[in-house]
Amino acid sequence: MFKKKWTMLLLTSLCLALVLGGCGSKGNNGGASQGGGEAKGDQVTVSFMHLWPEGVSAGQNKIVNQIITEYQNENPNVKIKQEVLDNEQYKNKLKVLSASNELPDVGVTWAAGFLQPYVEGNLFAPVDDLLSGELNGKFVAGTTEAYNIDGKTYALPLEFNIAPVYYNKAIFAKYNLEVPQTYEQFKQVVKTLSDNGVAPIALGNKDRWTGSLWYMYMADRIAGQQTLANAISGSASFKDEGLIKAATEVQALVDSNAFVKGFNGLSNEEAKSEFLNDKAAMYMMGSWDLPNFTTNEEIPQEFRNNVGFFKFPTVEGGKGDINSWVGGPGVGLFVAENSKVKDEAKKFVEYFVTKWGEQSVTGAGVIPATKVDTSNLELPQLYIDLFNEMNQASSITLFADVQMPANAAETHLNMIQALFGKAVTPEKFSEEHDAAIAKGQ
Fold first, then answer.
1. Which DSSP helix (H) or strand (E) runs through 327?
2. CA neighbours within 13 Å on the CB side: how many for 241?
3. What domains does the chain contain, in order, with CATH numbers?
4. % helix, strand, coil for the chain, step of 5
5. For the segment 69-78, what is each residue's pLDDT rounded down to a tens digit?
C-alpha cells in the first residue's frame, strides 16, 4: 500500500512545477447508466460519475462541463453522460455499484487504502498505458504513485491538497483576535469567541473524516509526524502517550464549546454553510475548498475578501512542526475494468486530465496534480499565499482514512465520531485502532 515516504520529493517537484512557473474536492445532473456505457454503430456513450455539483463546487462543475463540451465537439460520435453527486452520496453510491460490478465507465476515486478493495475486486482498469502516452511527464512527481498498487496505476490524480484552518478576518477583527501561533493562543481564541456567543469552529462530523483532520493535526503536533505515520501503518501503537494525549485534547476542545452546536449530527456541507454565513469563525478543510473563498462567484465577494488561513498551531512540549501538514494527492479518475467502451473511456480520461490542469487553476483555484506554467496567470492572493506556505512544508501526512485499508478506515472514522461525541475514552479509541489495523483489512 502507498505510504508517506513520497512527501518531500512530491513537494519539491510541485514547487518546481508551479513556483518556477511564476506563482509566488461540478455538469448537468443527468443520470449515468449503471453498468457502463454502450456503443451503437459509430455512436459511443461513456458514463461519467463525479462529485462536483453546481453551487457547492461551482468552479469545478463549470470546468467539467466545458471539458465535456469540448470533447464531444471534437469527437461527435461520443456522448458523455454525467451523474453528479455530493461527496458522501458519491462514496455511498460507489460502494453500491461496486457490489454489483456496475460502476460507471469513468469515475472519481481516492488513493491508497481507499483504492485497495476496488483493485482487489478487479473493478478498476490499470491506466499505465496513459502515463506512457500524451501524459508522459505531465504529472508532478509523487502524485501518480499514490494510485499505484503492486506495480500498476489504477487512477490518474487531478488535485493536490493540504488542509489549513480558514478563518473569518472580520470576526477576528471584531474581537481583536490575532492568528494563533501556539495551541494555547488557539484555545484563548476559542474561549473569546465562545464567551461572546460566536461559534468558534464549523465542523460537520456526521461525515467523520472532517473530525479526523482535527485529530490528525493534534496527533501530529503532540506526538510528531513519524509517530502518527507509524501508528497508521501498524508499525507502532495508537497507545503511544502522545497519541492518547491528542485524543484527550480533542475531547477538551469539545468541552470548551469549540465546535458549532450539534456538530456530530451535521454534514460537512451544513457546517460549511455556518462558516459561509458568518455564523462560525473558523473552518478546517482541504484546499479543494479554496475555490469557495477565491473564485466561486455564487459566494459574495465581501465574504471571500474576509477569508484568511493559518497553519495548525504548535503545542508546547509537543514533537510536531508547524510546517507539517495533513493532505496529499486528491481525487483521481478511474476507468471501470468491465466497461464496454474501455478504449473510449481511457481517451476521455486522458483528455480530461490534460485539460483540467490550467483550467482548474484559473477557473476554480485548485492546485492540480499536473504541471502548469503559471507565469502568465492572474491568481487570487489567497491561492498564492497557501501555495507559498506549502513550499515550506516539512512533511505531509496522507489523510488517515485514505491511508488505511478499508475496514480499518471504517473503524477509524467510527471511532473519530465516538471520540468527538465522548462515547469512548481516549484509551478505548486507541485500542480499537490498534485492533483494526492489526487485522490488516
1. strand 324-329
2. 3
3. 45-161+329-387 (3.40.190.10), 165-326+398-440 (3.40.190.10)
4. 50, 15, 35
5. 999 999 999 9
DSSP state of 259: B
Question: 132: burial class by Cβ within 10 Å (0-12, 13-18, 19+)?
Answer: exposed
Query: Letter for the amino acid at 184?
Result: E
pLDDT at position 391 is: 64
Which residues in 282-310 are b (16+ Cβ under 10 Å) and which e? Answer: bbbbbbbbbbbbbbbeebeeebbebbbbb
Query: What amino acid is encoded at 332 in this protein?
Result: G
d(CA 198, CA 260): 9
Q: Which residues is 395 bridged to in the sheet?
A: 324
User: CA 291, CA 56: separation in Å to the nearest integer?
Assistant: 10
- Report the relative pairing of strands 43-50 and 38-40 from DSSP bridges: antiparallel
At position 343, the amino acid (one-letter code) is D
pLDDT (0 to 100) of residue 377: 75
With H, G, I as helix, E, B as strand and everything else as coil, classify residue 3: coil
* Contact predicate 412/400, CB 8 Å: yes
Q: What is the pLDDT of residue 22?
A: 43
Give yes or no for a contact between 132 and 318, defined as CB atoms under 8 angstroms apart: no
- 113 sits in which H/E element: helix 112-120
Q: Is 74 left (phi over 0), alpha (psi -120 to 50) or beta?
A: alpha
Give me the helices (H) in 234-315, please: 241-255, 268-276, 301-305
192 close to 256: Cβ distance less than 8 angstroms: no
Low-confidence ranges of the chain (pLDDT < 70): 1-41, 364, 374-375, 391, 441
What is the Cα–Cα distance from 242 to 221, expressed in whole angstroms?
Answer: 9
* Torsion sign across C-alpha atoms 83, 38, 112, 430: positive
CA distance 191 to 208: 24
DSSP 124-168: B---HHHHTTTTTTTBPTTSGGGGEETTEE--EE-BEEE--EEEE
- Per-residue burial over 1-18, b = 16 or more CB atoms within 10 Å of its CB, e = otherwise: ebebebbeebbebbbebb
What are the C-alpha distances in Å from 122 to residues 2, 189, 379? 18, 50, 41
**CA 209 from centroid of its chain's CA atoms:** 10
The pTM of the whole model exceeds 0.90: no
